[in-house]
Design a protein that fits this description.
Layout (H helix, E strand, L loop, with lengths): L9 H8 L3 E10 L2 E10 L4 E11 L3 H16 L5 H8 L6 H14 L4 H17 L4 H13 L8 H13 L4 H13 L3 H14 L4 H13 L3 H14 L4 H13 L3 H14 L5 H13 L2 H15 L2 H17 L1 H19 L9
Antiparallel strand pairs: 1-2, 2-3
């Protein structure tokens, strides 16, 4: 996506991304018709290898997704894994409006802001009103309740919705991943590991399954393994805020503070509206004894979270530093973060998740 709209020659892009081929295409919609044009390019030689166009009615969007995915996959690789082919071919027909609402919900949920998460939940609920048997929408709703910051509700709902998704489509990776992340937040790590591994086995290309397994491994202190899972998640979805943010947390746990700070700055650039990267950068600045930078991040967190209590914390820490020095300010900051964490448990706030 960073190359979209640019004029860099394709061979240069191929070298920078270390790829041999590029698939590009367009989607056009006119009333109730959809046209997808795709072409495969030898990126290093900048020559076309294959091209085709697909025309469908909008109400056949489920069939469109399956057919185009399969045909392009066969062109790109003659040996598409049988499991992938079965997964693509078995998708049920979905109400097009429900599918669009689901996609909008996933997009918003990835932003990890309070407003976006509330909007995501509304979209998933809309998808289920339009198609009550839509398993992916139940999975999305489960993830909202697992990772959401403002959803004051019964914690059992995340597991309930995940199990509804699996009851409808037991072989869907998303349902197993949703059940796995719900188990992580309930500290059921054995169950979480089983479900997340199952999700990855069903769909190795589902980035969030790898991401949530890296989060689980981070919680268990298995940082090197967490970094490996995070690497895979970033390969699949390099511009995901939670994936990039959790990488910063892992590097922080490994005491690689400079790399962690660099990664968190990248995560902040991915979504400047989220407070999650600043929350982790705040910890790094305190560890390094950089008081002005720490207070600046504290102010940024308060502004992004729209939390008056955090502005009070900032003023209190500054006063402690002025009166008693660095060590006292570090301790006060840690205690305030602890009390803030306890407050956030009521809203299921999980930074960088």
């Amino acid at each position: 996506m960073p190359y979209k709209g640019g004029r860099a020659p394709l061979p240069r892009i191929a070298r920078q991304l270390n790829v041999d081929a590029v698939l590009e295409g367009t989607v056009q919609r006119c009333e109730d018709r959809v046209r997808i044009s795709a072409r495969l390019l030898d990126a290093r030689a900048d020559r076309q290898l294959w091209a085709d166009t697909y025309d469908f009615r909008l109400d056949d969007v489920g069939q469109l997704e399956r057919q185009v995915a399969l045909e392009i996959a066969h062109e790109v690789s003659a040996r598409l894994r049988a499991a992938q082919e079965t997964r693509l071919a078995s998708n049920r027909t979905v109400n097009p409006q429900a599918f669009e609402a689901y996609l909008r919900g996933r997009l918003l949920l990835g932003e990890r802001t309070a407003v976006a998460e509330t909007g995501a939940r509304a979209y998933f609920e809309e998808a289920l009103r339009r198609d009550p048997g839509f398993a992916l929408a139940y999975s999305g709703l489960a993830d909202c309740y697992s990772t959401g910051r403002l959803l004051k509700t019964d914690r059992s709902l995340e597991e309930e919705f995940a199990r509804k998704a699996l009851a409808l489509e037991p072989s869907r990776a998303e349902g197993h991943a949703s059940l796995g992340i719900a188990a992580v937040y309930e500290h059921k790590f054995v169950e979480a590991d089983e479900e997340l591994k199952r999700a990855i086995a069903l769909n190795p290309d589902y980035a969030m399954a790898h991401h949530w397994r890296s989060l689980q491994l981070l919680a268990l202190g298995r940082l090197i393994e967490a970094l490996v899972e995070n690497d895979r998640a970033r390969q699949l979805d390099p511009f995901s805020l939670p994936i990039n943010c959790v990488r910063g947390s892992i590097l922080l746990g490994l005491h690689e503070y400079d790399r962690a700070a660099e990664q968190l700055e990248l995560a902040a650039a991915v979504n400047p509206r989220s407070a999650a990267p600043s929350q982790e950068l705040l910890r790094i600045h305190w560890i390094a004894g950089r008081v002005p930078e720490a207070l600046a991040e504290q102010h940024k967190v308060a502004s992004l979270a729209h939390d008056p209590a955090l502005f009070q914390d900032e003023a209190e820490i500054a006063a402690v530093f002025a009166k008693a020095g660095l060590r006292a300010a570090q301790l006060r900051s840690a205690r305030l973060r602890e009390s803030g964490y306890q407050r956030n448990q009521q809203t299921r706030a999980v930074p960088c998740s």
